C-alpha cells in the first residue's frame, strides 16, 4: 500500500531520511524546505573566514530530489502542523501525510538586547547568516585598507559561547584577520576577538587533550578568551559580563545556544526544558507514533541514555534509522531501536589546523585538518553527483 511521507527540512537528518525512504518505490516522499539548498554547516565556518566559496557549502535540493522517481521537493515555508488532521499548512497550500518526519534542525538562540544590536548581530547556523558575517568582515577590512585613520581604530568582536561553534568561528576569523594583515603589511593589534566561555575552559566536556590543544591554538592566534563568564546584559555597543567587566564591541556573533524552528512553537508534543522534542527508542514522538523527529530538533540520547550533542553525524544516523523504521512499519517488521553515538569530533581551528578526537586517538595540526577535509568531501561529493544526475533529468523534462 502506498504511503505518503512528508519530511520537513532539508537538513543532514532530512536528506538522510529522504535517501533511505527513496529505496522503496511504493513510498511517495515530499521533502519541504524554505530554502532550495542543503547547507553544509560543517563548512560554514570556513565560508565566514573566506576559506571556501559559498557554492561549495551547499547542495541543490530540487536537483537532488529530482534524482529519485518517488521524491518531490517543495520550496515552501511551513506555517502550521495539525497532528489531528495529519496536515501541514504551507505558504502555498496544505499537504496531507501518512507519516511525518520533522527534521528542521535548530536556530541560533539570541540574547535579549536592544533592537539596534539585535539587527546587526548574527548566528552562523544558516547559509544566509554565514554569508552576512563574511560580507561584514570583508567590508570592514576594505575600510581599514582605504583609510589610515580607520586602520588605527580599535575594533572589537564578541563571540558569545565557547562550544564547538564559538571556538571554530573565533579561531577561523582571527586566523583570517592575521593572514590578511600580514599579507598587506598592516598591524592587526587594534582588532580583537573576544570569546566568552561560561565554564572554566573552552569546549567544556571534551577530552582534556582536545581542550589543551584548542586553548593553545586560540592563544597563538591571539583570541582573547574570557573564562567563567556569561553575558549579563547588552546595551548599544557595550556588553557586561558576570565578573563585572565591560566590553565595548562593534559586532557580535551568537554561538551560545539553539532553539527550535518558529513553526514548531505551537506544537503540543512533549518537549525537554531546552525545547527539543522527546522521542521514544525508535525516534517517534512520545505522543504520536506517526511522527518521527530527528536531528537537532529531537532530544537524542545514546544507548546509555546520555544526551548526544547536536552534530551532523548524529543527525545523519537518526535520519537513516527513521527511514528504516518507517519502511519496517510498512513491511510489518519489528522496529529497530536507536543506537546513536558520536564516532569522533573534528574541530577546525583556523587555516590548515584542526583537532580530531576519535576516542582511542587524538590528532591535532595539519594532519587533522586533512582528515577533516576528507570526511567532509566523502559526504558532499556523492550528493553533488546525485544532484548532477537530477539536474540532467530536470533539463530533459524542460526540453
Summarize this structure as a short list of keywords or feature phrases:
single chain, 399 residues, alpha/beta, FAD/NAD(P)-binding domain, 2 domains, five-stranded parallel sheet, four-stranded parallel sheet, 10 helices, globular
Q: How many discrete domains?
A: 2
Shape: globular
Distance between the termini: 34 Å
Report the major sheet.
Answer: 5 strands, parallel
Highest-level CATH class of the largest domain: Alpha Beta
Low-confidence segments, given as residue ranges, are none
Alpha-carbon Rg, integer:
22 Å
**Strand-residue fraction?**
15-25%
- The CATH superfamily of the largest domain bears the name FAD/NAD(P)-binding domain
Secondary-structure-based class equals alpha/beta
- The strand order across the widest sheet is 5-2-1-9-19
How many strand elements?
Answer: 22
Query: Helix count, per DSSP?
Result: 10
Helix content: 25-40%
Q: And the CATH topology of the largest domain?
A: FAD/NAD(P)-binding domain
Summed over residues and divided by their number, the pLDDT gives a mean of 86
Structure, described:
The chain is α/β, with parallel strands linked by helices and 399 residues long. It folds into 2 domains: 3-34 and 76-106 and 260-342, 3-Layer(bba) Sandwich (FAD/NAD(P)-binding domain), CATH 3.50.50; 115-255, FAD/NAD(P)-binding domain. Helix content is 35%, strand content 23%. The protein has 10 helices and 22 strands. The chain has helices at 12-21, 44-48, 61-66, 115-120, 127-146, 148-152, 164-183, 208-221, 312-330, 366-398, and strands at 3-8, 27-33, 37-39, 58-60, 71-75, 78-82, 87-90, 93-96, 99-102, 107-108, 155-160, 191-196, 224-226, 231-235, 238-241, 246-248, 251-254, 258-259, 291-293, 345-348, 354-357, 362-365. Strands 5-2-1-9-19 form a 5-stranded parallel sheet. A 4-stranded parallel sheet has the order 13-12-11-17, covered by helices on one side. Strand 21 and strand 22 (362-365) form a beta hairpin. Helix 1 (12-21) packs parallel to helix 9 and helix 7 (164-183) packs parallel to helix 8. The longest helix is centred in the C-terminal third of the chain and has 33 residues, at 366-398. It starts with a strand and ends with a helix.
